[in-house]
Every structure is written in C-alpha cells, then in structure tokens.
Amino acid sequence: MAEIRLAKLAHSYGNGTNALKPLDMTWRDGGTYALLGPSGCGKSTMLNIISGLLKPSEGRVLFDGQDVTDKDTGARNIAQVFQVPVIYRSMTVGENLAFPLVCRRVPTPRIKARVEAIAERLGLSRHLNSRAVALTADQKQLISLGRGLVREDVSAVLLDEPLTVIDPQMKFELRKILKDINREFRLTMVLVTHDQNEALTFADTVVVMNHGEVIQAGTPQELFERPATTHVGTFIGSPAMNFLPAVREGDRVLVPGAGLSRTAPADLPTTDLTLAFRPEHAVAGGPLAGTVTRIWFEGADQVLALSVGDASLRIRAVAGAETVGAIVRFDVPQDCLRLYHQGRLVA
Amino acid sequence: MKTLYLALKYLAIALWSAFVVFPFLWALTTSFKSANGVTGGATWIPWVQYEPSLQGWQSLFGGVGGINVVKPFYNSLVVTLSASVISITLGTLAAYALSRFTFRFLWMRNSDITFFFISQRIMPPIVLAIPFFLMLRSLGLLDSLPGLILVYVALLMPIAVWVMVDFFNGVPRGLDEMAWMDGCNPIITFWRVILPNALPGLVVAGMFCIIFGWNDFFFAFTLTFTETQLLPVAIVSLNSSVTPWWSLSAAALVSIAPLVVLAFVVERFLSKGGLAGAVR
C-alpha cells in the first residue's frame, strides 16, 4: 500500500499527440479514486504510466516518496485488472492466484496459506482446482483481482474498466466486493471508467479527464454540486446539468426570456456567460414557467423537458399528471444556480 | 429432409474416404505381390486373385535385388527430428521476439523481417543447392548427418517462424503485461505464460517441420554420396530398369508410416480441444 504522487507528469506518443497534459496529483494511501472520462481522454495512459507499462515523456511517479519512474513493472509491485479478464489459461484457479508469489519466490507453505485466504475472501475456494478458463467472466475478473491481493505488500490496485464485460446484475455485486476489499485491506485503488455511476459509487475522489487534461478532481458530491466546467456538468449527472446562455445586466446575470437570474460577481466579464442548474435542484411551483415538450418516466420521478422562452431545459419532478403541452411552474433556489464564463465555473 | 441431408453427407464422406484410402490399398496389395501378380490388371483379393509374396518386403531388408532401409530410415528419423526440434526451438524464440518487440534493421521492420524468413521458402530449392554444397564442403560436413541437420534447420526454421509469429500475435499482449506485473522476468513470462498459450501453434509448426523434413528428397540427394543415405533417396535407389512395384510399394508404406502415426497423434490432440480456445 502506498501513496502515489504524480509530479509534473505528461506524456505524448510518437506521433506527437498529447495523451496527457502536465499534471500534479497525489493519491493518498488507502484511498479509492476513479478516473472518469470519455474514450481517448488519457485515463488509460495515466494508469499504464503508474503501473510502469508506459514510460512518461515528462515528470516523475513517486510511491511513498520514492521515485519509481525508471523502475519496471514487476519492481513497482502493482496489481492491475484489465477490461477483458486476463487469466493464465494453462493454469488452474489456484495456480493463477499463486503465480505472483511463485514469481517472487515466496515459500510454498506461505503461498498456500495466502491463496486459500484470498480465494475464501473472493468466493473462489471451491474452484481452486478447476481450470481457470472454465469460469465465468466475473469470476475471471475476481481471479485477476485475487492475483493482486495475494501480495500483502501490493502498492496499489489499478482497475482499468474492469466491469465493462460483466453482466449488469453481476456488476453491482463485483463493485460491492471491490469496495469491501478496499475497506478490509486498506488498499489504494484506482478505477478507470467512462461510466459515471461506477465512478461516483466507487470512489472517494473522482478525477474527471478530457483531452488528456484533468478537468476536476473532487468528491462525488463536489462534482455534482459544483462542476468546474460545463463539460463536467454535462458528463456527470443524468440528465445532464442545464446550461443556458446568459447576459449581464448591471449587477445581475440573467437568461433572456426565461426569468432566471442571479447576482453577478463584481469583476464578471459581460460576454460568454452561462447560467446552470441541476434538473434535480428545480422545485415545483414558483415564478418560472415552461411548456412541457417531452416526458421521461424514471420510476418515482419523471424528467420533464421544458421550453422556457427561447431556452430548452430539463427538470426532475415527482411523477404526476403533467402532459406534453402543459404549463409547469417551477423555481431554482439561488444557491443552486451556477455561473460559468467561457465554460469555467465563476460562482 | 434431415435424412436426405445425412445420407448425402455420408455418401460424400464415403466417396472421399475411398478416394483417400484407395492409393494405400493399392500400395498395400502391391507390396505383397510378385512380378506375376502386378501384371494383368488390378487384383485385390490375396490367394484368390493373386498369390501373396513377401518378396517386396524382404527386398527392404537386404533381400534379393533390394537394399536395407533400416539405416536410411534411422538416418531420416535422426535428421528430421533433430532439425525439427532445433528449428522449433530457434523459430519459436525468434517468433516471440518478432511478435513482441520492435526491431529495425536498415529499412526493415518486424513485418519485413518476418517476410524475410518466409521468403527463404519462396525461392526454388535448386537455387540453394550449390551454396549449401559449397558451405558443407568447406565445413567438412558433406555426406554427414550433422551437415544434413544444419541444412534442414535452414529449411524448416522459416516455417516455424511463420507459423509461430501468427500464433504469438494471437496471444493477447495483456497476458505479457499481466505476467510482468505479477513479477515475472521476460524469460519466465515466455516460458510459463505465453508458450503454454501457444501450444497448439507448436504442434502445428512441429507437424509442418516433420512433414517437410521427412519428405525432402532434393537436399538429401544433392548433399550426400554413399556414407549417409536418407529414406527418400534409398527408396529411389530401389528402382531399376524393370520397375519393382512390389518393393517400391512396401518402401512407400514404410516411409509414410511415421507420418500416419503423427497424423493420428495430432488428430487426437486436436479432437481433445487442444486447438479450441487457443486464445481467449
């Protein structure tokens, strides 16, 4: 278990594309982190740099203050679970779990004890002597994870979209196991995903990335309440945050024709302004009114798409009798209205 | 409809089997015939249509008008197996390197180097006859088993490289990375993780090497004189102005016997699912 520090880390591939723009970041020992972003945003590159499969073009990687940038993968003592289950097909489940310890020349009795303990924890005990290929995809992912856990001193467990190929009903179960393992073993765990639900439910800290850049790192709550950019607001939350073009009039910023407004900070520029709020933050009744253009039912809730003046927005409301074409009245509390200038959070 | 389909299927299989088995049957009956038995049209039933004779088989073991094929058979076995084992070993290592690491030699990249190996088998063998002859002569290895093994390694290794590169490319790179992460060095990664996954490839490459090595006549003929004789050359030397069909048939059966055994072994391996799911 280790604290991982990325110091001025950057990477570009041979063809000159900036896969990772310079960044500084510290992941504390025993924390759970999620790297969230669309495909090609640099999150897997970052993971491969940490595990040592890729050497960064710039910057250093430090484990517990020790520079490991030039160390190879084996010496870093990292465990990684890949998107597609990677198992040693010629070996049994038990041999798979034992392999990292065999490679590290751990005494046989110790290996046996560790393998049995981890298999027990992951629910693989009765499969120990089965061929690993015969197991289901989620069990194979558990084997991958188990190969990391058998090493008591593993620095961190990196999870590169490990749930992508797992059946939906097993996903929840596997996520729970990961979370429990983190609590029990106090491991530093980093999950790479493009699924916001996965990221928000798994990690203490979510790192949102786009175009090789870290846009925002914070708790799920922070990302939801105060997205640092319009990109984060769109990427996190379902439905996405409402972003409405706004103008400044005196000491207020308002959305023309919609009646939505808030006070403007003193040094606010006058152009490129956006007012935003979460569909969840709209409350029923109030001074604002919109025409329902579409309704999605989501169990106890429903999402209403409204046309308010020239703007279209969505609000989440308790399922009721609204119909398309009806006028709905609502309000947005002032403390829930966010202001963006050139796509970045101002207030 | 289903019955008709089955009937047609078995008919097709029966026809094909007959087509394949017939030459063996022909060789088998002929090998037990005498000079009288092979004249006057095809005959199949011993004692009824022709009088069986062991003359053909006896001629393979030093009988009248024959030669002893035991020594050439043993030579062929030694040369083929040695050359195949060496080719597979070197070829597999080369193929793994070509599949996993990036090489540059002048303008050539990995794919060019792989093609270079294969290209050795594209040119007609006769092009290589004189260089091989001169090389073996300068090494003092003409007409010797080590000399033949050396030449056969050069001939068989491209096949091994070609087959194995393809198999290694099919083994996910993630497996190597996983093994590194588990603390393996590259040699253990290759030996314990990648090679077991490429086992079907080894079987296929081995089969090709043994077949090509065992059947080669050209180099066995051009690079030997009297001391070292391989089976294909020995069989040809059985021929004379009056073709001894009985001896040649017996010799043909002896020469294909190892390959038939090999085919059965490989078939069992394949039917046990050795090839199924070679990669995930």
From TrEMBL, chain A:
A UniProt-annotated Pfam family: ABC_tran
Domain of life: Bacteria
GO cellular component: ATP-binding cassette (ABC) transporter complex, substrate-binding subunit-containing
InterPro entries the UniProt entry points to: AAA+_ATPase (IPR003593), ABC_transporter-like_ATP-bd (IPR003439), ABC_transpr_FbpC (IPR015853), ABC_transpr_MalK/UgpC-like (IPR047641), Mo/tungstate-bd_C_term_dom (IPR008995), P-loop_NTPase (IPR027417)
Stored PROSITE patterns: ABC_TRANSPORTER_2
SUPFAM superfamilies hit by this protein: MOP-like, P-loop containing nucleoside triphosphate hydrolases
Similarity section: Belongs to the ABC transporter superfamily.
PANTHER family given in the database record: ABC TRANSPORTER ATP-BINDING PROTEIN, MALTODEXTRIN IMPORT ATP-BINDING PROTEIN MSMX
Record protein name field: ABC transporter ATP-binding protein
